[in-house]
Amino acid sequence: xxxxxxxxxxxxxxxxxxxxxxxxxxxxxxxxxxxxxxxxxxxxxxxxxxxxxxxxxxxxxxxxxxxxxxxxxxxxxxxxxxxxxxxxxxxxxxxxxxxxxxxxxxxxxxxxxxxxxxxxxxxxxxxxxxxxxxxxxxxxxxxxxxxxxxxxxxxxxxxxxxxxxxxxxxxxxxxxxxxxxxxxxxxxxxxxxxxxxxxxxxxxxxxxxxxxxxxxxxxxxxxxxxxxxxxxxxxxxxxxxxxxxxxxxxxxxxxxxxxxxxxxxxxxxxxxxxxxxxxxxxxxxxxxxxxxxxxxxxxxxxxxxxxxxxxxxxxxxxxxxxxxxxxxxx
Length: 330
Prior knowledge:
Blueprint: E1 28-32, E2 35-39, E3 51-54, E4 60-63, E5 75-83, H1 89-96, E6 102-105, H2 111-131, H3 144-155, H4 169-183, E7 192-197, H5 212-224, E8 227-236, H6 246-250, H7 259-279, E9 284-288, H8 289-292, H9 298-309
Parallel strand pairs: 5-7, 5-8, 6-7, 8-9
Antiparallel strand pairs: 1-2, 3-4
Helix pairs in contact: 2-4, 5-7
């Protein structure tokens, strides 16, 4: 299958190589004159109660938790809208918020991405701790007194404890889930929570086109681990070239990207959106701005979107309730 990136230089880039022993079955390769992509199936989302690691290559590994923790908040159902910007994402958010029990919030300036970065940094610290044998065995974690005893009698007298931690990746993930549930899932499990964000794209929060894919897969796995049931909606315009997305390009006040680099990054983002949806149809859905505001298509789009979310297809939602930026009203 071919994906065109208009205006791109005729240089073939290796966008990513995902090799995970638990997930990769066989690679899929496709190309356009300016973009070559090799992809494997997306990773399985992390279990909320398992020992979970997201590696540098996007690989998800799981084992039994090293500590038993009592009741903790985990949001039940979440919907995340990931968009490229100037693509109707606010109108899409509002359409979902017309469903009675939905409360999808607006942009957070990639704060959830900071949660992901924090999780990854904790992983790196825990790996270093394990390397120096400074993490305690799960059986020794039954109480604070037990931890203090082992720390004092078996570790402190024989080791430099600068990297000591008694918890594992499972508790880091649980803390992240609790953070999300406390902030976004505040109104209880009967409310579907979520957010929309335009910054989780190649060349912004994610690396530029050539390195974007692995990080994208890893971040999607992280998002799907935040709640019991996660739905991802990918929103953009149909075209990935610079001219149809000129307003988005001009929003970059830094001026660091030239139009060709912008087109590469946007094209890579579109490609990853499309591929992820094909491989994860139960968890991911694609929405194009043009379909949202096309009277001949938006009724069908609304029905398909509601069906994907597991909601009553007869629920009335509209994509044009809010004033549109394209009319100069907002």
